[in-house]
Each structure stands twice: as C-alpha cells, then as structure tokens.
C-alpha cells in the first residue's frame, strides 16, 4: 500500500478525542471499524495500545512504518507522532486503549491494585507483538470489557477498568517476555515471524540471516532441519496460505492485487505457484470457496 508523503511530512496535530477523553478519566477506549482517511500524524499524552481485529493497516510511528494484521498488538508512547493508514483491499477493525500514566496514579481505584507496569514499553517508542491465539483471545476480551465499562459507566465501573487494565499490562508483559526468549534462543522462530509480518515485501535469505544474526549457510541448514523446507519454500508456502485467505475473504480484490499483496512478483508467478501447491488455479479456488466446497 502507498502512503501519502505530504501527509507524513506535515506537522503533527494533537489528537482531540483522546485529549478530551482524558479530561474526565485517564483511560480512553474504543473498538471501531475504520475506513480510508487522509489525516496527518497526531500526538497525545500517555501510552496507546492498538489491537488489530480484522484486516491490515500500516502504522506510522515516528519515521518508521509497521504493518499490522489480526492478532498483532502494538504499544507505543502517544507523544511520538503517529497515525494508521488502512489497506483498503479489506475492511479494518481495531481496538484501541490509551491511558495517561500520571492521571492513572491519581485515581483512587488504582491505589489498592498492583503497580501498573509495562516494563520496557514505557521507555520505548513502540513495541509490536504477535500474540498467540490464546493470548489474543485473552487480550481481546479484556479490551472489550474495558471499552464496555467506560461506555456504560455502571456502578463500580472504575474499579473494573482499573483491575482489567492491570491484567492487560500483565498479559502484554508476558507476551513481550515470550517473544524476547524466542528471539534470544530460536532464530528459526524469529525468522518465521519476520517472514509472516513481511510477506508483501521482497524477502531474501541474506536479509533474513542478517536479521537473525547468523550466516545464510547456517540459517539454510537450520531451516531445513526444523521445517523440512528451504527458506524460499517456506516463504512460498506462507504466501500461498495468505492468498487463500484473501481469495476466501476479499472478493473485491482482483487476482493481480492479491498476488502483489502477498509478495508475488507477478500474477503469472502467483498462478503457477498456487496451482502447484493447491492443485487448483486461484480463480478455481475462489469459485469453489464461494460454493462452500473448500
């Protein structure tokens, strides 16, 4: 997806929704189905947590762009200029929570609770996390509960929000610790995570090896040993899996658009690889999926 450099280079503005929300309570939450927009980067106090529920979007944080897919969570300082831009090929749904650390400390319902702690996240510009299916379900439920309590404001709602926000911090820190352990001790898992997050880009064995801090030869041997596939075979396997998802769920996308969105160099390469892997042409797979045969 292309980003408008004019928007990115414009001076950031203050996010009025979050800023006004913090005037009444230091936690702001909502779930929303979003459409394409032309808004420039913005800033606000505190920490922002974004959980992608459906679709894809590019999150611009500072000078860097991070792609978000379902099950991915990104946490960052609201003081860093940021904005999201939607991949219009599919609808995009997210859950967002912002909280003002200073304001939270002043609220009475937090006094009897454990310290709200986001570890290294508070001092960093951002942290992107790929949640396990179980953790994704837990975090999604917590975020929904916080959003509902803030919207409905029934008796004891502040106590519920406080306890759930602490639970959210615990689950996020657990996920960070898990990812860090994997990064430290499992270069193949790190490499696979990188591939899954960057399928739409050009992927090379050399760049993946540099990212994993190993030689291309070492990565090739480990990949074959653990996955039973070469690096490039795994990349193609994941690209085919992603195109299957889009063929089923994104009827408005053409085959060429799907090919490029999944990182294939051309529609011809996409068709050739897909038929070899699935036994059907992409068009045949889409037709059968519509008829409930797949």
Folded structure, characterized:
The protein is α+β, with helices and mostly antiparallel strands. It folds into 2 domains: 5-185, Regulatory protein AraC (Jelly Rolls); 187-290, Arc Repressor Mutant, subunit A. The protein has 12 helices and 10 strands. It has helices at 5-9, 16-24, 101-106, 133-152, 157-185, 187-197, 205-212, 216-227, 231-249, 255-261, 267-278, 282-290; strands spanning 13-14, 27-34, 42-43, 47-54, 57-61, 64-68, 72-77, 82-86, 92-99, 126-130. A hairpin with a 2-residue loop joins strand 5 and strand 6. It is globular, with a radius of gyration of 21 Å. Keywords: DNA-binding, Transcription, Transcription regulation. Residues 189-288 form the HTH araC/xylS-type domain. GO terms for molecular function: DNA-binding transcription factor activity; sequence-specific DNA binding. It comes from Paenibacillus hemerocallicola.
Which terms would index this structure?
DNA-binding transcription factor activity, 18% strand, 3-stranded antiparallel sheet, 294 residues, transcription, DNA-binding, 5-stranded antiparallel sheet, alpha+beta, Arc Repressor Mutant, subunit A
Envelope shape: globular
CATH level-two architecture of the largest domain: Sandwich
The succession of helices and strands, N to C, reads HEHEEEEEEEEHEHHHHHHHHH
CATH homologous superfamily label of the largest domain: Regulatory protein AraC
Please report the distance between the alpha carbons of the first and last residues.
Answer: 29 Å
